[in-house]
Every structure is written in C-alpha cells, then in structure tokens.
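thoughts on both lines:
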Amino acid sequence: MSVVQVSRPRGGRGAIRVEAAASIARSGPGPLTKSDAEVLAGVLERGGFEGTRVVLAPARGAVCVQPLELPPRGSGAPLSQIARAEMARVLKMDPNAVEVAMWDVPPPSRAGNATHVMAAALTKQAGDEAAELLQSVGLEIAAIDVRSLALARAASPWLEPTGVSMLIDVSWDGVCIMVVLAGRVVFEREVDHLSPARLCGAAAERWRLEPETIARALTHPEWPHAGDIVRLAGGAIADFVDALTPEIARSAAYAAHRYPNAKLERLLLAGAWAELNGLRERVEAHLHVPARVVRALDVAVVSPRVQSASVGAGSLLALGLAMHPGHGVSAQEVAA
C-alpha cells in the first residue's frame, strides 16, 4: 500500500509537490483490514503527514467497471438511474445496494446518438466497511476513487492529448490494462490470471525459496542476493512477460476496432512491478509503440524530506488519489 500527500502553490498554479510519501507492507491482498488501518494510522502520525482525511482506492476487483450505452442526454431520460440499474443487474444486486459513478467517453466509430459512458460500481457495504475501519483508527474518508481514473490523472503529463495511450498497472496481485483516449479512460480490463504473485510463487516452488524472497530480489536490485536469484528466476520472468504481452496486444486491437481513426501513440507502465526485467522492452518491441515506466517523481516535484524509493512507479496510484478534484491538491489530503 502506498500513501502520498501533496500540495500546490496558492492559486492552483505551479507544479504539484509531494510533501510526504510512504510504502506500507500489507497483511495480504483484498480489502483493507483492521491491521492495515492501524499500520496506516501509525505511518501517517509518524511519517510527516498532516491531517486525517483520506482518499481511498478500493482493492483490486472490488469495483466493477463497464462501458454503457445510455439514451441521448437531450432525451430527458434519468441517465444516472439507468446506469445504476444496469450496473446492479451486472452485479446481480439491488440497485439501492450499490454506488455508481460514470464519465462520458468519445462515441465509437459508427455510433448513433446514444450517450456512451464508462460506469464504475462499488457496493455500499464495501464502502461503509472501509469508512468504519478508518474511523476506528481516527481517519476519515474524504473520497473513494476509481483506480483507473486516479492512475490516468497522475500520468496525464505523459498521455497523448488527442490520440490513444495505453496505461498498464502491474501490481502484486494482478495487471490492469487501460485504454485512454484524449485523456479519458475508455476501456479497462483486469488480467487476474497473470500476476507477479503467481510468478514469485512458481519460481519459489521450483527453486525451494520463499515467494517473499523472490519478490524482494525482483523489486530491490540493490539487495546483495538479488543478482543470483534473478538469474535463477529468469525463465519464470520471461514466461510472465511473454504471457502478458499478447494480453496487451488484444486490448490494443479492441481499441483500434472501437476507435479506428485514433492511433495508439504511447504505452505507459505503472505499478510496483512495472520495472520488471524485460517487460518494457518486450512490450515496446511487440506493439511497435514507444513505452516508458511512469513514476510519481516523473510527474511531481518531490520534497527533499521524501525518500525517492517512496515515489516510484508503485506510488503513481496514490499520487493520483491525492490529486483527486477538490480534495488532494488544495486541502493536503492523504491518499492510500
């Protein structure tokens, strides 16, 4: 879990500045736990953070994101209610049990006069449970954000302003592939069957090591034993990269089919595992598109008090949360 606090000069002009940042080891994947909340509160108290308001991203998979085709905006139809009902149908839940956010996206090729949106749904139970957990340790939820929107917000200086960019979030428990057109997230897909967690598990089983040892070697090249372990795990790393590359290509093909007049111009990698050996080079060669890893320190000015390890590619999501409109930039919120 990454935590970032930002500020911006008065008047809203000038570069965003990271005032505090930290990376926190979690008790495990999935929703926030009591133990996670207690550790988070302790880090915020001792780590140079100010305030108690938090902008939170739910755990991977907790938010259902779908493209929807709604009636024209000028029709007078209750679009928000229709979107809520449709997302509740997808989740097989009562519409009153879900919270839904949506944003307009450019219409695809040969579309009619319908309103095209991306909709994101979170169960009210999940939101209430997260709020109660944080309140129990003295924190308050200022907002719950969609992961893809936060990532695109943070990476915006590197996104193509008019063309198509792909944003790949490579995290411990899975990969999320996002397509961004003219700054708007128009598609996202979770690739749960490919994850660094499975990579480390397979390599650990083969070489009789702990998965945590493999993970440390792959993410901390300065560790004295990292070189030897990376060489042992080289085959597993290559298999992971080779399996992920076609998944990215499929998403690129979908974007090309939906928006044939918009060319894929750039591919951005984020997440704690974005710098996995060979990933950027392999994707770039396969898609013939420039690719780069985006770190929080590539986007914002970083206070001298903040360690560079806390503002890498793994903290880009937290930076985007801290930039949440009306919360992170002006009020110095904390994002986790």
